[in-house]
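User: For my dataset I need records formatted as: sequence, then structure tokens, nothing else. Please produce one.
Assistant:
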Amino acid sequence: MLSRRDFIKINGVTTAGIGLGLKPAWFATAAEFESKRPKLSDRKFTSKAVEATIKNIKSAIKDPELAWLFENCYPNTLDTTVNYSEKNGRPDTFVITGDINAMWMRDSSAQVWPYLPLIKNDPELKNVIKGVLNRQAACILIDPYANAFNEGPTGSEWDSDRTDMKPELHERKWEVDSLCYPVRLAYNYWKISGDISFFDENWQKAGKRIVATFKEQQRKNGKGPYHFQRKTEVSTDTAPLSGFGNPIKPVGLICSIFRPSDDATIYPFLIPSNYFAVTSLYQMAEMYERIGKDTATAATCKTLAAEVAHALQKYATAQHPVYGKVLAYEVDGFGNQLFMDDSNVPSLLALPYLNALSTHDPLYQHTRRMILSSANPYFFKGKAAEGIGGPHVGLNYIWPMSIIMRALTSNDKTEIAKCLHWLKTTHAGTGFMHESFNKDNAADFTRKWFAWANTLFGELIIKIHKYHPELLA
């Protein structure tokens, strides 16, 4: 099975070899821009609304390569990763990440997110996303600390990890955002569709489990039950100090032992994820209050959100000698702070995308300038492009996701156009976004099939079509 760290081979040629002049077959045929989608009979799910959107937006894109990329990428989640069924008369959707046959709580939410605006006009698509909500609630009730799940109780290659593994779990890395993303999806599903039927007994139990887990990981009453260790040569794949992570001072923030990249945190208070948690808690408060008529749980959500927000104001910022007041990426409550950003979302760059900060907030703008510069140790600039990577893949590898997020959070048309150019010129002839690529050679890339990056690219094109259509013309 491929892991998130694996490099790939295409037509028997390693991607690293392409930089030496060895060109696989797709270089010769890329100019033809033939669809890379599976044939209709092989697609996992087809949405009339999605197909109409592709046709409409593709007709407005004058660059044939860009139009081809959009047509390949935007429907990729539906084409290749969703497994829809009904269980006990209720929709149930299991969503794999792509080349890894498991469902991440984060990725599955993000993969279907760009289709949410279409659910009012496509009942079948609405059911697919409702099935994701139902599946996620069931997963949280199995284990709120797990980041990835199997379709059934099949066990996993990570069963030997020293943590409380269950046969339904693919991996058990505790990441705060794994519980935020299902809330974001549920809240916006409700706001767009008006449908409250998802907010059943299971979802309400899962929501209360989310709140309890967040409070547990504030670690006011000891370390809590979660610990994780893996026998590995990769330091970021395991947690220090008997699996509980590095020390923190309980100040109201929530510990996240792993980042959205599935890499271990250095300081367990991961700032982007704590911002995301504040937004999610307020969204849950509104759902419990307005749908569930549960004012007690709503009040608990609001109180916890306010506490985390106050702690962020006190502990998450520092005065940078060049960029002014900025956000740290991780802190520990003792005064230690880590200044960087990672390409995975939530990130500091993505905070406005997650409705956690305004793009016009001076704190965000100062932080943005810092992380899109050499002040961020994981910001890379090369012959192919510039963008943010992270320790997950290694130095000098840019993630297309970071370029997409830079464009999604920008108000500058010139910057958006530049990002669009980098994305168009770094797919290495495959017609899809990748996990990462070498800053000097886009043909040296990881993960040929990474559905989240593909649908996120589709989301960007749709936003540009709406607000800056001239960039597509």
